[in-house]
From TrEMBL:
Active site: 46, 388
Protein name according to UniProt: RpoH suppressor
Transmembrane feature ranges: 117-142, 148-175
Domain PNPLA: from-to ranges: 14-401
GO terms assigned for molecular function: hydrolase activity
Gene that this polypeptide is encoded by: suhR
InterPro entries tied to this protein: Acyl_Trfase/lysoPLipase, PNPLA_dom
Organism encoding this protein: Mycolicibacterium helvum
Region (Disordered): 615-657
Length: 657
């Protein structure tokens, strides 16, 4: 594959789905897109975040051969050493979790998997098995002194008891290991060098080195950061999940409420990455604007009260490897990442903050260290556990979305083969991309068994999948979304938790990714489906215009109905905002008479427009279905594109003072 080292004229965005080892699909898919497009905004979740980071690094290092290195990644991870692939050896458990991890991986990609798992459990917990078997062994020895039927029955009972005891012993040993997982950040592997690795590179340092190489950065140039990418017009975004707050969070985020413990982070990231973070605390506000002198003093006092904890860097200074690892924290397999913040919903912390504010006012020339010592009682910094981004948003297709797109935003979905589609040697037949407007409307179905343990486990699994993926699934069938999403199918032996995939399997998946990307390129720049050249992009732009305006049309009608409704015992909206509105405002003042007059005038223009639109159905006639509904949703906290003006927001954990 030849990838130009100069930037193509066309640009695109791409978002990729999580899927653990299914991520081997993405390198050649991205490289295929990069032959035609310059990658501007790149996002993903979990394994898709690794692909997004690699794609961003390769685009940054395009001139120095970044995409050549990215294309070689599938071959790199299938290289064998001592009968194990690089991919398999990247996941390294801690010493205490090693026996359970070996049992977990024993049957991967091998025949008689269940037997191998059982053997691995016995090997890993042999002393526990022996301890559990002792009562049965004692019975067997005692009964061996008997005669006739008593001898046979006694020995048989002793053997059965020994077997049951051994199973119980192994189960107790495994349960004890599981009990230590919570003290090891809720995972078997940290991503750093672990037990039994024999010097093989571990996941996080290996990825960090790959990102640096793809970006063309030397080892002494500092880690690749979001700011480094932004300097070349590349936006990178990925998803993580704050388990403590039950909140999906895109990274990098703008908030400055988080701190980290350097000693803990050094167990999860290379030392030079943590040293960089320690030496790059935020110097300006979350909106990029310098803080006022009093806000600087408040910030410095809180940092002093944090003790050994250090403030989380601003987005531009955040290393890409840190965000990537926080997105790839597959529950139980890879450890969660602990950060710290003050929970201002607790009265004690609000009291501590009020005391700090009062002390700063009373001591305008004192240092932050003096303040921390004088106050004594500091707010409590509670741990926030961050786990896999795919928990809540495995395919964040909403990333980089715009009412009217200026360039295509492609998405790559991963799904199991539907029951009526069988794997083909022709890779394009293992992918699906809607070509006509009426295609891609139907959600995939999962047929559940109705008897046996498998039926119950399938039912519970579908409950979890529905809870975590319903929003992504709803968007994927929307017009303006479905026409830019290519789905790549895989079977049970491919991707997922298959850490020990054979080289041929990885190559197949990588080629499938390239085939899927080629379909996207052909649809948006070529003649896929017999359409005129470039029809796919032209049609997608028009569909987004239709869906955006029909959503706006429906919203403005509902706005006008509410604006004109006179609710009992309330001030009418026209008296609050609109031409000549002068009623007292209950809160959130405009700040000046000039601003209120401007708001009144703009409200009048909006209601006049709504009155005009109410007489016509032109924007809704023939619009694509299902139709969108515009409604308020919380800001996701991600940093805004550089073209957007900064907006000052209040943290949800810190009420306005």
């Amino acid at each position: 594959m030849t990838i130009p080292t100069t930037k193509p004229d066309l640009e695109c965005d791409v978002v990729m789905k999580g899927g653990i080892t299914s991520g081997v699909i993405y390198p050649r898919a991205v490289c295929t897109l990069a032959q035609t497009y310059r990658l501007r905004s790149i996002g993903g979740s979990s394994a898709g975040a690794i692909a997004a980071a690699g794609a961003a690094a390769a685009e940054f290092g395009r001139a120095s051969g970044g995409f050549t290195l990215l294309e070689a990644l599938p071959a790199d991870i299938t290289a064998q050493e001592n009968g194990e692939s690089v991919l398999f050896r990247l996941f390294q458990p801690t010493k205490k979790t090693l026996p359970l991890y070996r049992a977990f991986t024993a049957g991967m990609g091998k025949p008689a998997g269940k037997i191998r798992i059982a053997v691995a459990l016995i090997a890993g917990y042999g002393w526990w098995a022996l301890l559990g078997a002792i009562p049965g062994i004692v019975v067997t020895v005692a009964c061996a002194q008997g005669h006739g039927l008593a001898l046979v029955a006694g020995v048989l009972a002793g053997v059965v008891l020994a077997l049951i005891g051994a199973i119980v012993g192994v189960a107790c040993g495994a349960a004890r290991t599981l009990g230590t997982v919570s003290s090891k950040n809720f995972g078997l592997c940290t991503g750093m060098p672990g037990a039994g690795a024999a010097g093989a590179p571990a996941l996080t340092p290996w990825l960090h080195a790959k990102f640096q190489s793809m970006a063309g950065l030397s080892s002494d140039s500092g880690p690749l950061t979001f700011g480094t990418l932004a300097s070349s017009g590349i936006e990178l975004r990925m998803m993580t999940t704050n388990i403590t707050r039950r909140q999906p969070m895109p990274m990098p985020w703008a908030t400055q409420e988080y701190f980290f413990e350097p000693d803990q982070m050094r167990k999860l990231f290379p030392a030079e990455v943590v040293d960089w973070m320690v030496s790059h605390p935020p110097s300006v506000g979350s909106d990029g604007i310098p803080l006022s002198p009093i806000d600087v003093r408040k910030r410095d006092l809180l940092r002093a009260q944090a003790g050994s904890k250090k403030p989380w860097p601003n987005p531009d200074d955040l290393p890409v490897i840190v965000s990537t690892r926080m997105s790839l924290s597959f529950p139980l397999l890879i450890t969660a990442v602990p950060l710290y913040a003050v929970n201002y919903s607790l009265e004690a912390n609000r009291t501590a903050r009020a005391a700090a504010d009062a002390w700063l006012q009373a001591n305008p020339h004192a240092t932050s260290a003096e303040g921390a010592a004088a106050l004594g009682t500091a707010p409590t910094f509670d741990v926030n556990w961050f786990s896999d981004g795919g928990i809540c948003a495995n395919l964040p297709v909403h990333f980089f979305d715009a009412p009217l797109p200026t360039r295509p935003t492609f998405a790559i979905d991963l799904e199991s083969f539907p029951p009526d589609i069988h794997k083909s040697s022709i890779q394009t037949e293992n992918c699906y991309l809607p070509v006509e407007n009426g295609e891609g409307l139907l959600r995939p179905w999962t047929t559940l068994p109705t008897s046996g343990v498998a039926a119950l486990s399938s039912f519970l699994s579908q409950i979890v999948d529905t809870a975590r993926g319903w929003l992504d699934a709803a968007q994927l069938v929307m017009p303006g979304y479905r026409d830019r999403v290519v789905t790549i199918y895989h079977d049970d032996t491919e991707g997922g938790m298959n850490l020990a995939m054979k080289e041929a399997t990885v190559t197949d998946l990588a080629d499938r990714g390239a085939a899927a990307a080629a379909l996207l390129v052909d649809k948006f720049t070529g003649t896929l489906g017999g359409k005129p050249a470039g029809w796919g992009w032209e049609n997608q732009r028009w569909i987004r215009f239709r869906t955006s305006t029909v959503g706006l049309d429906e919203w403005i009608r509902r706005f006008r109905a509410g604006y004109g409704f006179a609710a009992p015992n309330t001030t009418p909206y026209p008296a609050l905002a609109g031409p000549n509105a002068t009623a007292d405002l209950p809160s959130y003042q405009f700040g000046s008479t000039t601003r209120r007059n401007q708001a009144n005038a703009q409200t009048g223009e909006l209601t006049t427009l709504a009155d005009t639109w109410a007489t016509s159905s032109a924007l809704s006639a023939g619009a694509p279905r299902p139709r969108p509904r515009l409604r308020p949703t919380p800001d996701d906290g991600a940093t805004a594109p550089s073209a957007d003006p900064p907006i000052q927001t209040v943290l949800d954990s810190e009420p306005p003072g």
